[in-house]
Amino acid sequence: MTYFSKLRPLPILAGLAVIAFTLASCASTQPVCDSPQTRSLDRAISSVEASLTNGCQAHFDRYYDDLLTIAEGDPKPENKRAFSEFLVWASDQGLLSKRQAEDHYNRYFNIKFMSLRGDYNNCSHTCPNKRKVLFDMERELSDKERGLLKVSLDNQGYYRADELFQEVELVLEATCTACAAGR
Amino acid sequence: MQKRQPRPRVAVRQRRISDPALFWLLPATVVFAAFFAASIAAANTPTIRLFPTTVVEDLRQTGEVARDMETGLQEVIGRLDQQQQLYQESKCDGAENDSGCQRLARQIGATYLDMLTIMDERLPDMEHTVNNTRLSLEKNLRSELGRKMTPWTLQETLVGKSSNAATAKPSPTLRGRSGMRLSERFRQYHQLVATSGSQGDQSLAVLASDIYLDMEETSLLIERTRQEIARATLMEQLNQSFGIITPEMMEVVGGVKSILFGDEEARTLVAGPPPGDIEQAYRSPLEQ
Hints:
A: 183 residues; 9 helices; B: 7 helices
């Protein structure tokens, strides 16, 4: 009887299977990307920053939403700064481009509308898409309600944004009518 | 040894004078330079030209024409109101065959015809001035806001140079126009436009848009009214022979009254936002 024939094949196979399974599970270990569990915005931001640097970049939008929800629980004007600093950090870390960081901040915390941007004149660019532009602005206004009103307690800022939306609606209506009449 | 020449007194005095002069001259020069630079900067700041003098003049003229029309119609409409009141007090509703009621109905119809005639005479002038204002504004809006501005610059114009909400001036509120006399409306427009130099560009853009849209509406209304007057006159001339008051007649009179003299029921109060929190000095480096 040879040496190999003395070995039992079943335990060997079982052993190999266990090793292969262990290696496979090690290779596909997912980072834990849970939402922050604290109600303090500062601690939540620290926790999110740690998660983002540990491979959870893909969850950035969810984390941002989580932070807004936490900030809504303790609204105050200083929250604006906390979000700004967090976004600047994200931009410095290369998680967001500068433009993306600006968009994230201004969409929630500035009275101006990011959805009203463009490099071409109003007659040629805005008027043909007026309905879409106003629809996007309306959606942005609800984000501003969250950022300015519910997170930062900036009532005046939010009401100015709301007023700006109405003014843009009126001015675009008049301007686009005038543009159409000139064709 | 050469005796040192004393320094001339004049020079000394000049030196003494020039010290305090320098003391004042330097800050004065700085202030003047700053003022000069500011005025140059202000002169270079692009301002939108939405209300040239022609538009201001058109608005004034429209207001005058509207006032003339109101004055002409006021007496006729007052007479119509009295006659209608008499008709109702005489319990003529449902007693149209009564000879007295028929006479009253004919009188009302005749006054109604008077009203239509006055409107027919005055409306062409009104139409002309309203159209002039509308076309001037249309041209300026197209050029200044439509072609020269991008959506972002338009937004910045509306927000104003200072995007700080706390310092923003309240813009003119022009909603709820139906509760106002026509001439009063134009008088207010004229006043707002004539004093527009004191307002920022943001108010001007809103004001011009509001007036332009109002002119569009008014122009359309006048055109339709003129078309209807001929038909209504013919109908009323026919009705005169029967002494009938049609519901349409009452509707027209009601409509004219509400356009010309304002409609109290339609006067709506525009709710302003509650006073906000002014504590918002923080400005993010990400803010645009």
